[in-house]
Amino acid sequence: MMSRTRSALFATGLAVLASAAPAMAHDFWIDLPRYHQPADTPIALRFVIGDTRVEPWETLWRKVVSLRDYGPAGVTDLQAGIRPQTPTDSGGATIRLSGAGTHVIAFESTLAENDIAAAEFNKYARHEGLTPALEQRARSGSEGQRGRETYSRRAKALVQVGTPATANATKAIGLTLEITPETNPYALAPGTPLVLRVDWHGRPLAGASVVLEPLDGNQAHGTPVITDAAGQARFPAPTRGRWRANVVWTQPITHPRAEFDTVFSSLTFGD
To answer: What is the bridge-based pairing of β-strands 74-77 and 64-71?
Structure first.
């Protein structure tokens, strides 16, 4: 599992967002114009945030923990390719991938804080299926109090280089909250359902709400699928195009400025 020191992240200061729940629920993903790429050529990717409106995520060094390639031949640190946001560049990263096969590009952000009105927080928690938060607030009788959480983001993108769709794409890499396909989407037989597994701290997560949506076309919202006891969510076979799966989960914590720690996670892949 990727190492992290929470105390160090808190010590550097957390960004406080006094936004409403719909803004907090924005999805986050690694966006490429094409998820099939040639080897050893520059690839420009974007970190994107959005819901009804899509826009570049604010790429700043203080918000980045890691960017890595979990490729067929091993792990490569890609953080040197990060492009921080400037007045003339919306930010992102420029990377190169060596070796044929499926490359799992993984990103992790630092922690931030969210503090919003009770009604908006409850609405957001219900919308995202954050059962631990809803149950904890019901037990403590705090549904009428402001919702305070720390949150961070994880994202994976499956980038296919060359022909072989390699098995490393089906192995979890140790993100706190992680979506992993049970079968490499680039090896999925036509008409075969796509099964995604969600892990939380390395264990299959039951009861999480997973959404699979197209990145192109009408940006239709997908129907949430709840993970079973094995942490699996089953979807109809994806058609051609680019796709994004999303999940959010939380846990109660003891902290002077937050009662929950929430993680947003995504998986992107496609043509």
So the answer is: antiparallel
